[in-house]
UniProtKB/TrEMBL annotation:
Pfam families in the record: TPT (PF03151)
Major location category of this protein: plastid
GO MF: organophosphate ester transmembrane transporter activity; phosphoglycerate transmembrane transporter activity
Organism: Escallonia rubra
PANTHER family registered for this protein in UniProt: SOLUTE CARRIER FAMILY 35
Protein name: Sugar phosphate transporter domain-containing protein
Any one of the GO CC terms: chloroplast membrane
Phylogenetic classification of the source organism: Eukaryota, Viridiplantae, Streptophyta, Embryophyta, Tracheophyta
Domain (Sugar phosphate transporter): residue spans on this chain: 103-389
Segments crossing the lipid bilayer: 98-120, 132-152, 167-193, 244-263, 275-294, 314-331, 352-368, 374-391
Length: 400
């Protein structure tokens, strides 16, 4: 996933409940004891999943005897309970004790799956240059994975209604368009060059925020984007694998993912990221199938499949398509889950390092020859993205 998708939770603060005074029967206040609401845990309430369960009234007729919930902490040594020594503290698991290791593992798997996806994806295009069909396979394998996960309840499928569906459709359409155009670029030029062009995505995000959403972008943020534009321009002028199809497709992908971010802000929901991404994948798959059938269907039936099978064999062809689809879905899912665990500044560092890893590994694996100017331009663009990400993360922290 090129950019982070898109969950949000609505924080609801607790509101004190207003209670009417108890009605007196026959003018006798002694018969019915005084009632008072219990608002704190110390008054006998319990916090369960963020909700406070408490008695409606507490009888105070006898100061010596107070009604206490059966699950109250009566075994606390401070209260002198008989079972003070029997209280057992639940053991802390290894992952809870060292959360940094868990987050580090998420980052490692995110990078690993992303690099493997990009390498395998490019290898497929070297013998099967049909990006529309391959894009459909990416999404189809992910959808099958999601349906299987829902079947076994990992996670449990979140319900969806017509209102939420209307909000998710624009997000999924932009996701589908950005995904297909990215694959067209991957098929046409080197992976490193596509990722260099896609480093311009922050520029499009800033422009959309300023001129479409009406959000004022600080001057420092705009200035940090100058190295990105300069670096991409330098790399494009001397890139040995440059062609206009790959360049324009990568630019369209940037625009598509920018609009996906805009629509995502309008589709904020309490649904967890795993379910949300599953629904977006299903809708995006339905969007991608028609153009794949129309634009590539006749060629695939005539000679596309036969040529690929003749080059690598049926077993490898099918297994490559399956694995590239699985890696695509898992790396996007891991990216979403990883970025939910960290602060905006760590998020910024993670995104920049991911792009550096992909560009570096693709050059090594495929042995792409790049000019000195291309290398310098790519480095300047990545440094600009890092600068932009850091400044934006600091602005978000200040807003919080």
């Amino acid at each position: 996933m090129e950019s982070r998708v898109l969950t949000g939770a609505t924080a609801i603060s607790s509101v004190p409940r207003l209670r009417k005074p108890a009605a007196r029967l026959g003018g006798s206040a002694a018969f019915f004891p005084a009632a008072r609401p219990i608002g704190a845990v110390a008054d006998g309430g319990h916090l369960i999943w963020g909700r406070q369960l408490r008695p409606a009234i507490l009888l105070e007729a006898s100061p010596a005897k107070t009604l206490r919930p059966c699950l109250a902490a009566a075994s606390s040594p401070a209260e002198g309970g008989d079972s003070a020594g029997d209280a057992k503290v639940a053991p802390v698991g290894f992952l809870e004790k060292y959360p940094a290791l868990t987050t580090g593992f998420f980052f490692f798997m995110w990078y690993f799956l992303n690099v493997i996806f990009n390498i395998l994806n490019k290898k497929i295009y070297n013998y099967f240059p049909y990006p529309y069909f391959v894009s459909v396979i990416h999404l189809a394998v992910g959808v099958v994975y999601c349906l299987g996960s829902w079947t076994v309840g990992l996670p449990k499928r979140a319900p969806i209604d017509s209102n939420l569906l209307k909000l998710l459709i624009p997000v999924a359409v932009c996701h589908a368009l950005g995904h297909v155009t990215s694959n067209i670029s991957f098929a046409a030029v080197a992976v490193s060059f596509t990722h260099t062009v896609k480093a311009l995505e922050p520029f499009f995000n800033a422009a959309a925020s300023q001129f479409i959403l009406g959000q004022q972008i600080p001057l420092t943020l705009w200035l940090s984007l100058a190295p990105v534009v300069l670096g991409v321009s330098m790399a494009s002028l001397t890139e040995l694998s440059f062609n206009w199809l790959g360049f324009i497709s990568a630019m369209i992908s940037n625009i598509s993912f920018t609009y996906r971010s805009i629509y995502s802000k309008k589709a904020m929901t309490d649904m967890d990221s795993t379910n949300l991404y599953a629904y977006i994948s299903i809708i995006a798959l339905l969007v991608c199938i028609p153009p794949a059938l129309i634009l590539e269907g006749p060629q695939l039936l005539k000679y596309g499949f036969n040529d690929a099978i003749a080059k690598v064999g049926l077993t490898k062809f099918i297994s490559d398509l399956f694995w590239v689809g699985l890696f695509y879905h898992l790396y996007n899912q891991l990216a979403t889950n990883t970025l939910e665990r960290v602060a905006p500044l760590t998020h910024a560092v993670g995104n920049v390092l991911k792009r550096v890893f992909v560009i570096g590994f693709s050059i090594v694996v495929f042995g792409n020859k790049i000019s000195t100017q291309t290398a310098i331009g790519t480095s300047i663009a990545i440094a600009g993205v890092a600068m932009y990400s850091f400044i934006k993360a600091q602005i978000e922290e200040e807003k919080r």
